[in-house]
Amino acid sequence: MPRLIDSLLRYIASFGRLTLLGFLTLVTSTSFATETEQQVQAWIIAADSYRMPFKSGELKSALTLYKNEEKQQSSEFFIQVNEQGDSRVTMLNQRSKGQKVLLTESAMWLYVPRTHKAIRITPMQRLMGQASYGDVSSLSWQHEYQWDKNPVVTKTDSVCFSVTAIRKSATYRKINLCLQKDSLRPVNAQFYLASGKLMKQATYITDIDNPQRISTTKFTQPNKKTQYTLMHNSDYQAKKLSKHIFTRQGFIKR
Fold first, then answer.
1. CB count, 10 Å around CB of 133?
2. Spatial CA neighbour of 216 closest among 64, 109, 42, 70
3. In the chain, where do the E strands start and end?
4. What pLDDT band is residue 206 in, cutting at 50, 70 and 90?
5. Domains observed in the chain
6. What span, in angstroms and rounded, lies between the C-alpha atoms of 228 and 224?
7. Contact between 79 and 136 (Cβ < 8 Å)
8. Residue 234 above 80 pLDDT?
9. Stated pTM of the model
10. Which member of 6, 117, 155, 227 has the greatest number of CB atoms within 10 A?
């Protein structure tokens, strides 16, 4: 390895001092660290605490779609989450009021009142703009993904690594995560399909009044430059919830 680096330096130096300085800056600002699986898992758990400040509880969420910086539409949701990472999402808007989504370890279900049935859907299904059903219902990476053991990239102010799905109902096959280096607060993420195609990106915005919480997530897609979707979460309440409401039977009845 020392011989390889020495050869690279001599090669780059042949192009002049500025190029050499640029290379040295890149090497010193970006490094590839050797981490353990336990360390990275602890990072993921810490990052989750910014998005979901409890193991079990309730919150409200609002999606707003923007095009050319103008508001197009919005929807509100009531979300319940348990300690296993299962969740229920209830639609609050008049047009879809009463519709509910259940996310469990193995599947996602949509209940429409007029049919009195729960139909199976994919978490990838679009809910609004750049946001899917899975984006709203899943607030915990630790239950759905694990580090793929590719090198962790350490930059000046962040650590970046990739995780792969371990849960059947996970929305994405792979996610590239970047966390703030000192606080482990989520900074941004790239979401990939099983085919390896980049599906969307997310930028995580800290709550102005509470720096320990991510209040807003901005979703964008590479092929829709003029559009983005904001997901704003609020009214967090830690609460012990019945296991029954996270079953298909309890989901339909309540």
1. 21
2. 64
3. 31-33, 57-67, 70-81, 87-91, 100-103, 108-112, 117-121, 126-128, 131-132, 145-147, 152-154, 158-165, 174-180, 186-192, 198-206, 214-221, 224-238
4. very high
5. 1-30 (no CATH), 34-253 (2.50.20.10)
6. 8
7. yes
8. yes
9. 0.84
10. 227
